[in-house]
Amino acid sequence: MDSKNKIIESQIVEEFEKIRPALTRLLQTQMNNENISLRYGRSKSKDKNDITINPSILVNAVSKSRLDKQELLIGTVIHEAIHSLQNYQISISEISNIFNEEFDDMDDIEDILEILAGPFGKYVFEIIVHSIEEKIFVKKYEGLNSILEDIYNESYSDIKNLTPFSQFLSLLFHAITTYIEPDYKIFKNHIVKALNESLHLLKTINYVEVNISEIVEATVQIIDICRRYNILPDLEKYNLGEQKEISQLIDENVVNEVSKILIPSSNNLTTGKTLQKFLGKDTKQNNQEKLNLMDDHVTKVGASNNVYFPSGYVAKVVESKIPDNFKFLYSDGLVTYEKLLKDWNLPVYKVTNKIKPYFIHNLKRKRISGYDQGDLSPHVPIMLASGRYERMFEQKQRLSNKSYAISLLIDGSGSMIEKEKTELHPWSLTAALIGTSYLSQICYELDIDFEVSIFNRGFISDYKDNEELYLKRKFSIASMLNTTYGSAANELFNTANHYFIKEFKDSWKDQYQQFLGLIQFSRNLRDSLNSNILSDNYPPISMFDKGTNIDEINIMHASKRLLFHPANTKMLVVLSDGMTRGSIQELKNAINYSTRNGIDVIGIGIGSRGSWKEYLNNTKVEQPEQLIHSVVNITKDILIKNIKKTSGAV
After folding, report:
1. How far apart are CA 319 and CA 460, in angstroms?
2. For residue 106, how many other CB atoms are within 10 A of its CB?
3. What is the DSSP string of 125-178?
4. Cα(174)–Cα(23) distance, integer angstroms
5. Model pTM score
6. Is it the case that residue 152 has pLDDT exceeding 50?
7. pLDDT tens across 572-588, in order?
8. What is the DSSP string of 320-379?
9. Which helix (H) or strand (E) element contains residue 184?
10. 464/52: higher pLDDT
């Protein structure tokens, strides 16, 4: 906190102590609970009757307002108390009956809203609850109503500068609370129409108490209204990557913008904590299950690998196998793969022969043979008798294809499954996978050691996850981490992930079904979701988050494995559609470290985004038809360079 805010906070403490007794009595009377107490601090009390007022909330309110300081404090403290004392029980069976959906295995209101109303339903739900809570409490106190009216009037002029959905939420709040009467003429017609239609729905809502089932039902209908009036996008029209990007953008706007209109609070929609007030029937049991999931996740992250950079920077990377359920897309993936080879003019088996000779030439250089080389064989008498003079001397080193080790790293961020506006299908991840299949095919045929991995940053998926299990774990662990670890939760939740499609020790044949399933998913996302596989078999497609490639961590992690491999020649190939979202300097450090230790690092850029100049060996593929030409040439150049180093000639 800077010095100015420290001064403001010290002044606030004095003012708060003056008004605390009166506000405490007011709250005790209104809530019919003489045990209620107000306390000033940053951590919540374990006593459910304690209302903790966070100083940062008050500093934020005072520093941004020109209103009377004492009145502002009264309004902010009461506002905080109103929204922190209420807890609600939700009736899962009642909500299930209304929507004819089964929610028996769910107790989290956010999960239910996500299913029924999509990612933005929680904001409408919270605004309605937030508004009703204030309306119920404040209507009995004209003086308090006057203070809150002044506070909201001060921020009212900012509403017209917000994005459409934030405008709608703010106007919905004012329409329910009636602190002020907005001038609807200054707002765009589609927002006003959507608001009027929503308010017509809300006429049936009980404003005497909060009825969760009623509000959930109204929320679903209002979200539909917002879509019809183009206040919210219809996400079904977009692919997964676009959906995530749109959702993240709107989420950020709502959190940043509505906090300028509503009174600052630790229990409103600007922090996402309101939903913690809604508890299911079996709270203790369900919370214990979430706690177990969180403990397992924290243990997994804690036991993950440390990656050490030459600069001293240390990062963690979590390893996992690619989810097994991608194999259920294998049949469609095989058809898609063969079709793309024709559409993009990529004759795999013919083109692989363009690189094979260079691999084989390198391998032959490792063999020392002939009667004038090597050590005298102990079987010389037998060889002489049989006339096999060329075998008199044993080879010092037999031809072994294990003299190569190749690690193939594929960017698994959400942008890799996005499509350009002019394209029918995304192609970045598909092209990266097919490029990988070329090199894998050569390695497989020549019995060369190789591994294939996908990397990203986000919530780690488990090998046995389907989409439902993945999302359930994700939501459950997120809520428990926020409650338990506070500001440190994000580091535990979003991890650098390294998904193995094939490890060095694995059989390529055994992993091929998942690999082709990934090709089907990456090329035909919507068809993959609508395929005839059982819902339990859906792979966890939500594991692909946008903007989450951190090349340097995964390069260092793969380099460590290569350094311990006994091969003579080592290659690390990175296929990505953009530059790292981590540190450019650490990326350089990782590449330089690998190169100094005898690993050839190759960067293959997929698509028109980003730059790969940090990779000493790099090429760019702007169209899928260029894919194999680029992969062949860059790989051939590296192999030729290796031959020149040892023999001086090609």
Report:
1. 9
2. 19
3. HHHHHHHHHHHHHHTT-HHHHHHHHHHHHHHHTTGGGS-HHHHHHHHHHHHHH-
4. 25
5. 0.57
6. yes
7. 999 888 767 788 889 99
8. EEPPGGGGGGHHHHHHHHHHHHHHTT--HHHHHHHHHHHHHHHHHHT---STTSSEEPTT
9. none
10. 464
